[in-house]
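Input record, target 12 of the design panel.
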């Protein structure tokens, strides 16, 4: 059997989840990998069959998307050429993690694909959302449209939604509490974060930055380039995670029984939805960095409340059921 697994390359969550799913898919046949997008710092260890520019947004430095940089990065003619040129008839199963090139190529070639993603959980009206409707709902439906959906979220809001994929490398970590706090807030400037976190006394902070190539320290704040291994080690030994409104990072921290504080990106609807869902579990949320930020951070530091989650290891079962349900053929490799 020949399988195509297409992965979104904006942010690190999609690639991180794929690191767990790729070895499972390889057990069922010949696997080709496709990545589109330009904003991920982590990568897969397996070679890519296709690498496309895709359609990505660029993180800003003040809590939101850099609209001008995003516009300059766009190449819609190339996106259309890639969609038109992608050969798909050879595949027995096409799996899509919110990746637009393969999704629209499937639409044009009338080939059904399966979403295996966090974003497709928003196909259900039961998935938490802010009360005010947003045009971004159209992105969930039309950015990467597929025929079938297998979603992931913090809770099982519908029958096709599962709890998060927690990578084996995270499940196997030995945890401790060395007292520092891990930070991943790619939409904020490092200097802004450092100047604020310097005001939290003797608490040590590990900021993982998209913008830094070498590590440095400023008083109680350590700034590191993004690295999967370094981040995992910091997370495993931290007291808590300060992060945006993503999905994979908070899910992994909650699984490791770490405190989490979320600051969703401004005007980023999906992150607002994620933060709302996390808040229903008990995760505190700060909607913006303002004059009360240090006070709120100190309150979080002094709160020892831990949130219990039950993220079972069912990824292999999900993949097996997907293959059996949607693939044209099922010869399992020995």
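The sequence produced for target 12 reads:
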């Amino acid at each position: 059997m020949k399988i195509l697994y297409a992965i979104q390359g904006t942010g690190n969550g999609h690639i991180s989840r794929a690191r767990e799913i790729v070895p499972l898919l390889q057990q069922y046949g010949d696997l080709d990998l496709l990545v589109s997008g330009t904003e991920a710092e982590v990568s897969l260890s397996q070679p890519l069959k296709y690498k496309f520019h895709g359609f990505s947004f660029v993180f800003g430095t003040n809590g939101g998307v850099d609209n001008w940089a995003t516009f300059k990065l766009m190449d819609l003619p190339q996106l259309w050429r890639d969609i038109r040129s992608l050969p798909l008839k050879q595949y027995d199963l096409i799996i899509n993690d919110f990746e637009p090139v393969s999704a629209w190529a499937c639409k044009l070639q009338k080939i059904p694909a399966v979403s295996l993603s966090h974003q497709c959980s928003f196909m259900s009206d039961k998935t938490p959302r802010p009360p005010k409707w947003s045009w971004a709902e159209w992105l969930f439906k039309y950015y990467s449209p597929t025929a079938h959906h297998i979603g992931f979220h913090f809770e099982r809001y519908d029958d096709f939604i599962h709890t998060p994929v927690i990578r084996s490398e995270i499940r196997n970590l030995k945890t401790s509490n060395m007292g520092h706090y891990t930070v991943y807030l790619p939409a904020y400037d490092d200097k802004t974060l450092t100047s604020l976190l310097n005001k939290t006394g003797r608490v040590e902070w590990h900021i993982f930055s998209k913008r830094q190539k070498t590590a440095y320290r400023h008083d109680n704040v350590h700034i590191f380039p993004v690295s999967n291994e370094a981040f995992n080690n910091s997370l495993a030994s931290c007291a808590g995670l300060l992060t945006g409104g993503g999905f994979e990072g908070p899910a992994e921290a909650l699984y490791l029984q770490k405190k989490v504080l979320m600051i969703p990106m401004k005007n980023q609807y999906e992150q607002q939805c994620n933060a709302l869902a996390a808040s229903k579990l008990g995760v505190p949320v700060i909607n913006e960095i303002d004059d009360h930020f240090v006070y709120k951070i100190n309150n979080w530091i002094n709160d020892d409340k831990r949130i219990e989650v039950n993220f079972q290891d069912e990824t292999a079962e999900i993949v097996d059921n997907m293959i059996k349900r949607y693939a044209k053929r099922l010869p399992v490799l020995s």
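The longest helix spans residues 13-25.
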